[in-house]
C-alpha cells in the first residue's frame, strides 16, 4: 500500500495564515500574498490535499472556496482572503494515488490482505489500513455487515504481513476471540542477531511472563548466515506465538533469548550498514478456521527480498574482512626469519630445556617468577610469555584467563598490573588447588585480586560464579576488559612426533581436538558468542580484547574458522620470531539494548 505524494515546496507556514473558528478555514497573511491556490492548499491542507492532481480535482469539484466563491487551481491569493476547503477525509483516501490494498482472499464475511510495513491498522491518522479497506473491499451482503471493515491482527506499524479484515459483526467477534486464544496460528519470519542454539528445523519453545501474562513462543532456526557484525552470525528464524496476546511477543522473546531482531524500531537492535532498511520481521504464514463456513484457511508468503539481500550483503562483508586478516597473517609469516617449515611449525613447543625436570623439582620459572607445577598442569613455556606482554600493554582492570592451568599467565599479568583483578577458569579441581597455591606465592597480600573458578570453555555462559566474581551487588554482572587464553592445539600425530618428555604432560592440556587440532578454539569462539548474546563477559559500551596463543603453523586455520565476529588488530612474535599471539578487538556496540 504505497502512498504517492509530491515533493513539497519549501514554504514556511509558520504564521502564514490565521485560523478561524470554522473548520478547515484560514485567512491569508502577507507572507503568502500573491501565492496561487494550488500550492497553498497542498501545503496548508496537506492532510486533505496530497498532490497536484488532488488540488486540481478539489477545485474542479468546488471543494475550495476563496471568500465564499469556488476557486480555480491557479487563482491568486491576496492578504485577507479567506480560504476554505470542504473536502472530507474519506474523499481524500478514495482518490489517493497508489492507495491500493493487496487482497489475497475475500468473501462476504472477511478478507485476508497483505499489510506493508509503515501502515497502521486503525487510528485517527489518514494512512490506515482500515480506512483503505473501506474503499478496496466489496460490500458485504450479510445482515450484520459492518459499516467499515475491522482488522483482526496484532501487527504494529513497522511489521508487514497477513491481516484478517472482518466484514461482519459476528465474524469479527469470533475471529477476535480466536486471536486472543491463539487459535489463529501466525508464523513470523525474522532475522536476528547472533547464532541461536539448536539445529536447523528443530522446534524450540521459550516461555516467560510478558506484561503480567504468561506467554509461550515456538521458534525454528531456518538459516544461519555469517556477518562481520556483533557475534559473527545472523539467524533467520520462524517465530510462532503459542500462548499469549502481546503485540511485541516475537520481539520480546527474541531479546530474552539474547538474539534481538534486526531493526530500527521498538524491541529491536540495528545492524551496521543496514540501519535504514527497517524491520526484519514479517508475518509470512497464517492459519485459521473460517468463522462462517468452518473451513481451514491457509496463507503463505515468501520472505521479503530484503531478507536475502541482507544475508548476501553481510556474507560479502564477512568474506572481505576475513581476506584482509588472512593477508595480514600471511605477510607477518613472510616477514619472519628464514627457518625450515618444520621448525616454524613446532620449534618452540618443546625446547631443549623443556624436559619433565620441572615435575621432578616441582617448580618452573615464568615471566620472572617461580611457579609451582605438577603432573596435573602443562609446564609453562617461554613462548607463552608473549601473551602476558600483550595483556599488560592494554592495561586492563579485569582479566579473564581461560584454561588457567598453573595460573602463570593470569598471575603474571596481575603482578605487573597493580590495579587489576582477574579470574582463572579450569575444569580440574587439582589444577585449581595448584593455581591457588601459586596465587598466594606470587601475589602475597594481593591474593584476593585473583580468583580461580571451576568451569570449561563450552559452559561460560552458564557459569554464575564467573559472572558475579567481583560484583558487590547481588544482581550486578562482572565484566572483563581482556580475555587471555592458551588453549590446547596439538593433534595426536604432532604429540607423537615430539620428544617423549611431552607425553608426561596432561593430554587434556595438549590435545586441541579434531583432525587439525583447533576444536578448542572453535569451542571458545562459540562460547564467547553466546556470552555476547546475553550481554555477559564484556561491557559492550567499551572496547574489549581477546588474546590467544597459536602454534605458528595453525594461525591461518584459526583466523579462517574462528572469531570471525572480532577484529584482528595484531599478530605478535615470540622469542624465536614465530607468530605466536593473536590480538583481537571487540569495539563498543552503540546499539546495545540496555
Automatic annotation (TrEMBL):
GO molecular function, one term: protein methyltransferase activity
Keyword vocabulary terms for this entry: Methyltransferase, RNA-binding, S-adenosyl-L-methionine, Transferase
Record carries keyword Methyltransferase: yes
GO CC terms of this entry: mitochondrion
Alphabetized PROSITE patterns for the sequence: N6_MTASE (PS00092), S4 (PS50889)
Sequence ranges assigned to domain Pseudouridine synthase RsuA/RluA-like in this UniProt record: 110-245
Full protein name: Uncharacterized protein
Domain (Methyltransferase): residue spans on this chain: 397-580
RNA-binding in keyword set: yes
GO BP terms: methylation; pseudouridine synthesis
Domain of life: Eukaryota
